[in-house]
Predict the 3D structure of the following.
Amino acid sequence: MRLILLGPPGAGKGTQAKVLVEAFGIPQLSTGDILRSAIAARTPMGLAAKAVMDRGDLVSNDIVNGIVSDRLDEADCENGFILDGFPRTIGQAEALDEMLSSKGMQLDAVVEMTADADVLVSRVVNRAKESNRPDDNPEVIRKRLDVYKKDTAPLVDYYRKQGLVRTVDGMAPVDQVTGAIKAAIGR
């Protein structure tokens, strides 16, 4: 099962990814985790990313794409994976399509988790009280929602044209969202 989870910040993608990892026995691939692992392993792509990050710059799409490609080659991805946080843009989606094609792979589904922006803001504010995360405040979450809407939301149409999008209500209780995702992907 090769999946992408899409949805605005706070919609529960990380929570659902953890549940699906357990259910399907496949890894969750988060670009942040992949990047940190590549840097720690001192891979060529990891070293390139570290040099960019040490300068305070954003890691380029080429480096991110290369790190994701390397990660997809690892043995635990043979039976599938869940991409969370990648792709974020149409350019990254196109690169992923080429990457998967060159590896003889294809996506099974793109799960779009929908959520109401105002509910997300209050959800994140409540999470902030529990976790003390500095990025969990109303101003930051609204900015992240705007970035998602501008850069990442267009991926829904991109993948819908490929017949891959399965939409679920990310605002439902966790177990109901999990059930809806499993039903949507035929599991």
Notes: The CA atoms of residues 49 and 55 lie 10 Å apart. The first strand starts at residue 2 and ends at 6. The two ends are 10 Å apart (CA to CA). Strands lie at 2-6, 28-30, 81-84, 109-114, 165-169.
